[in-house]
Design a protein that fits this description.
The chain is α/β, with parallel strands linked by helices and about 375 residues long. Helix content is about 45%, strand content about 10%. It has helices at about 1-10, 20-30, 35-45, 50-75, 95-105, 120-130, 150-160, 170-175, 190-195, 195-205, 250-270, 280-285, 325-340, 345, 355-375; strands at about 75-80, 90, 110-115, 140-145, 210, 220, 240-245, 270-275, 295. The strands form two sheets. It has a seven-stranded mixed beta sheet, sandwiched between helices. It has a two-stranded parallel sheet with strand order 2-6. It is globular. The relative contact order is 0.15.
Length: about 375
Amino acid sequence: MTKANNIEGGRSGSGNKSKSNSDSIIAGVAFTAGASVGSVVSGLVDNGMLHEGQAMSFVSKAVALQGLGRLAARKTLLNTSDGGESGAVVVSPLILKMLHACEITTKGRVWVVCAPSDQGKSAASEFIIHGEHSLRPDRSLKIDATNWKDFCADCAEGVLYCPQLARSLSVHLCNALASLAPVDVDDSDPSFLEKIGNWIDRLSCLALDQVNFDEHRPITIYGPTSIEVPVDGATHKSSPILIIDDFNEVTEANKGFVKELFRDAAKLGVVVFILTRDQDWETTLIQFNGGSKIKPLIGNVHNRDYDGTGVFDEVPVWNTMDWSVTQLRELIRPMCVQNNLDPEIIVPDGVVLRPTGAFDEVQKKIRNQRLAALG
């Protein structure tokens, strides 16, 4: 039980006395191999150690932790409203840089990604965990944190439907990704199952805001073979991955979450990508650990000789990871083919465009074609 309690507290051997006895008990129930949640909690109630309200809370938490482990195993996109990427995507600069980070990271690390909103952050992160490549991890989660001022509370209450998880959400996420999820909840106690019925009904609503990995339909890539992606032959499989997208809200609560996260990720071997568009915010995040366990994504800064190794103790000079002419042409090629346009004319050599700018140029050509057809 002691080991389980240390995991719950997020610090091995820390003996965190700020945790209540109730947190220690539920940690033991949830993380001890072979534990029967229904029978253990029932016994605590019968012996007067817990009242019924506490028991309900404990069972809900245990079920939520179990569910979180399953979500990680299914490589789930959480809190997404667009249904996720499907089919094929073009290889963007961000995809290449994130894959490179996965390839060189053999232990837990937080990579900070700073890019404008039209650089394909969502598509890149979804390809990393749902794409057809050899570095795809066995366990992963992507969480959209748009407008979340308190990541722990917003995620625990609004996505996982279990406010009790907010207190140690960082370690719960890392445990789920590192295969330290709790055992199945025992169904031998019908009275407890009946009491958590409403909670399970709410949890089922997650299906509306989540996308699981379909091994029969991975996201593929298209474009010239000169843009290399490690489809096979990688030296190792990627560590478990947590991707937090649109982490843009600068608050004390979010700072506190990241300070816990880089420690838990390092201890449990989880690779984390935090994606945002605010350069000052990302610079603040990197300074939490002095550039050791949390660093800028390789290729996302102009700092000289930075290759992701060693301690990053400089002020990051962020770049926007601009798309090459070749990448932009491949991005717009499907639309150009549909409208009998030449991508090389839309995106000529030497032009500097963002993805939205390239699509705008295609739309202009289409409008001009229609106007010409009208005479």
